[in-house]
Hints:
The complex is a heterodimer. Chain A is mainly alpha-helical. Helix content of chain A is 71%, strand content 1%.
Amino acid sequence: MSQFGDLMGGFATVLSPEMLLFAVIGVTLGTLVGVLPGIGPAVTIALLLPVTYGFESPIPAFIMFAGIYYGAMYGGSTTSILLNTPGESASVATAIEGHEMAKRGHARAALATAAIGSFVAALISTGLLALVAEPVGRLAVSFRATDYFALMILALVTVTALVGSSLVRGLISLLLGVTIGFIGLDGISGQPRLTFDSPVLFNGIDEVLLIIGLFAIGETLYVLVKGRTRPGQVTPLEPVRGGFMWLSRDQWRRSWGPWIRGAGFGFPFGVLPSGGAELPTFLSYSWEKNRSRGKQEFGKGAIEGVAGPEAANNASFSGVLVPLLTLGLPTSATAAVMLAAFKIFNLQPGPQLFEENSDLVWALIASLFVGNVMLLALNLPLIRLWVKVLEIPRPVLYAGILVFATLGIYSVSGTVTDILIAYGIGVLGFLMRQFDFPIAPTILGAILGPELENQFRRALNVGNGDLTVFVTRPLSLAILLLAAAALLLPYAPRIVARLRGKDPEEAKKLAFADED
Amino acid sequence: MDRDVIVVGWTPTPQGEAAVEAAVAEAGRRDGVLHVVNASSGDSYVDNKIASTEQLRALRDRLSGQGVEHEVVQQVGRFEPAEEILDAADRLGAALVVLGIRRRTPVGKLLMGSTAQRVLLQSACPVLSVKA
Lengths: 516, 132
């Protein structure tokens, strides 16, 4: 029961007025950016990283970041349902049935099942996180360099294979990121690499710079070039019809199953390196579509199709925290940005984190519970307010983001050169968006790349330069084989179709949007 | 003799309705022709002032029912609404522009600007403004 005691200690930290304030800021900002298409939790956390430089303790920063992530999930469901524009990629599945429900005058029920489902799933998955994190951390102590190397390869490969529309583009993005990660003085030999003899680049490119450049500046340029689009219309909310928390007895009955199943899909897929929340949301959606009692209603606004995916996307975040906290292994863009935040505070996520900074870990886990209670209380009553955010003219919105991004970079380094580098990276980010290259593999590559190299060298040192060390340890070999299988996964539907003797062209490639 | 052209800035809101109502009355008085403009700059993700196809049709039907000769145009993503209205008035040599207005807070006006104010200050022809 030591976990329970630790968790209570975490609650004691979080339930102070100051920490609660940071949680409120986090969930509010998160909901705002979740509502806005194109601006996801990864960008927001990246923009706030420079702000947290001034914090003495990392705890409030992480409480805020967790709030942002969860808030973005709640906010994303709001626009999916009312506007049919998913605010972030994990809400795409929600939009399908959710908007249909709204058009048929069940907007409130759709919003409520999304919010309550997210809440239920977050409670379940955070509970699982609290139970699982420490044992996994203890297991991780026995991992060797070759295992870490294999795990990182697996994380990089799965994210690359699963986001975006093309594996080749994903791999190019990944290699670009790894290359950017290598810029600077080599940690062991002190040799400058890819610096073009310019001392400016000796320290490498700061992760904050890279993230702000690729996400915030890149997205701004992309929106600028795309120009004006026809604005959408928000489906009006119908008058409250009674029922408990906007859901009728029948809707409660139809929702709870998908919530629990969604949480069941979300958590494990978050734990496994699978690129975040998209995969489990779609799995949950198709499960409910084919198996649930309301399946004949699918396409006409089935509540199961909203309840399941929403629960899955929230549950996956707690899952994502497991490898991040116990192994220092980010499995989504947002997790990569959070890893950068750990580095700012000189914290090394991994097995030691639970021993040396257990107060931080448990405060973070407790804040997930607190944040979700806040979101449930804030979200439904304030929906009209959140929707208003969408009426802000884009020039005003993105000018604000650009100012914030520039200020942030300047506050980190105090040099104009860094601002120029960030804008250069921004142009790169714009080109990647324009030509359909996924961004997430680049971020992961740049952040994990140097660490990957470290573990690679360490393993070779131990093995006296023998490359077979990676395949002689069963655990490392198994993980590497998994990574190889992950490369084929996007083509699985086509391969299955061919095996069954059907036309492979009909089966689509498995692909998910990135960014979050 | 040419008939007077009355340009109306219309949105599916109480202000818009008030403007159309006043414009119809004015058209009857002068035996004029209505030119209804529904416009949005297309800068935001959501703009509830853009009329849907059904709302446009409903307006056309209503004006036909009232026996007013009219033209209803929607322009999204070109100029600001004020510029659209002024442009139409200019092009058609309008005799009158009709606008619906509402109470605005000073801060709201500072941040978002006011379509009505721009039209009032820049229009070459008389402007009739109706408070909803």
